[in-house]
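User: These chains co-purify. Model them together.
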Amino acid sequence: MTVKGELAAHPTNREGHRERARPRRKRWSLETLILVPILAYLAVFYVYPLARILLLSVYGPRLTFDHFLRMVTVPVYTQVLMRSFRIALLVTVLSLVLGYPVAYLLSNLKPRQVALLMPVILVPFTISVLVRSYAWMAILGRQGLVNTLLGWLGLTQQPLEILYNEFGVLLGMVHILLPFFILPAYSVMIRIDRDLLKAAYIMGATPARGFLEVFLPLSLPGIIGGGLLVFIQALGFFVTPALLGGPQDTMISMLIELQISQLLNWGFAAALSSVLLIATLGGFMLLTRIVRVSILWGEAR
Amino acid sequence: MRTSPPNSWAARIGTFSFRVYCALVLLFLAAPVVIVVPLAFSSADFLRFPPPSYSLRWFNNFFSRRDWMEAAANSFKIGFLTAGLATVLGTAAAYGLVRGRSKRKEALYAFFISPMIVPNIVFALALYYLFSRLRMVGNMWSLVLGHTVLALPPVIIVLSASLQSVDYALEQAAMIHGARRLRAFVEVTLPLILPGMVTAALFAFLVSFDDLLIALFLSGSRAVTLPKRMWDGVRLEIDPTVAAVALLVMLLPTVILVMTALLRKRAVGRGGEKATP
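Assistant: Joint model of the two components:
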């Protein structure tokens, strides 16, 4: 009897009550069966199509590694790959520099004050990337807010070129990814026991030393979690670089789109996608090792 | 800071500049949201800020042109269907995850939310390959099926949190009194997680309503969505109608956020659900 066996195995487990309330024998529990529809759905419309793309990257009419070779031998493509990683890294560092102080401030405020400031972080978060990139075009353009303002103040003779180049791309991407850093960092910081800091001060530590030697190390999981989350998302960004960058700012995702819409080169597009997919999932696996996944969307308090 | 004891001038200046820095970062986050409003009422034929004068011509353009209205109708249809499908699948998944005791729970959870992490361009390309073979490009349902995959992670996150806060003992009590599993769930747990389900459905709708990349590949010419139409507007014509639509599209999530906040408040008031993220 499985029921008896399980009860014996978990004598204090409250699951035991459930078995007693439903004394019919089943090989598959309802909790497992109920997962079947979603697993089937994801297998057909998620795992299979992605697997098909991975296969397509090495198997055209026959087995080939030409597409991957092309990526490392043709300078234009190598440059795009390097640029994507460099931009993703820069965006991550900028998010850290801009986001850490804000997360620190939030973690020190009273709940009421946090409730007042949170919408500033969450509202842009919910607005479509397309709309926000469009707004940046209006701010950074030759006749945009920044240039009009500088012109009025007489600070510049001619408009600054801050749109359609890497500066615009970085600004737009940091704007979109910053909340992904702030929220995990905040939810880690809020869990740090402040008595530890007080103890450090009582022992004579200066505020700077207390921060550097007590608070900073304890907030590290938030920094690494948030940083990785920003990095892996930045790597595959499409809309922002496409709208705010120039032709010289092509990233992997734009190259993939180009291969399909202009050249119909499925094999090469699949190979590029595979690189992006593997790099991203690798980063995600690393992430799940470092922090509990649920921390990432600010499961705070 | 509350925790730092010294109150010298240096410390005060430090605290002050730290706060100014944070305020500037928050201003940076808010700026584009604020800018869209005057832009939508611009009278200029192209993108410039500040607008030379104000008018309603771009709203008028949006509501009177057939391509824009069709795109909006498609987006709403696809959004509603996605919300329905994702909420049904997601509720079942969350129930299995929260009530089950599988050793692979963490791994399953990571798998279910991984569509958030997979680059949209890669997933869109993969779907395009699948649906072009099935001759379903330009079919609304191909978009619904794709958007549902993207909508599942937020749905599962919201519903897991909401199920975790419902005491399982209530369901067990119903079963001890002779209710079957299904009846116990439908009559005891379901009403308690209903606010969570509505929130989840709204999130799913938003995911679908926002998606550009899947639409870019699968829309064809018959299932053009609002983001796809906006994309064409920005890329091909720098049409200020986009700003008017942007304002309308921006208001939608704000309204939805307020609605979910109100729902949560009501739920907390009834003691049904603890605050969920």
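Chain A touches chain B through 92 residues (CB under 8 Å).
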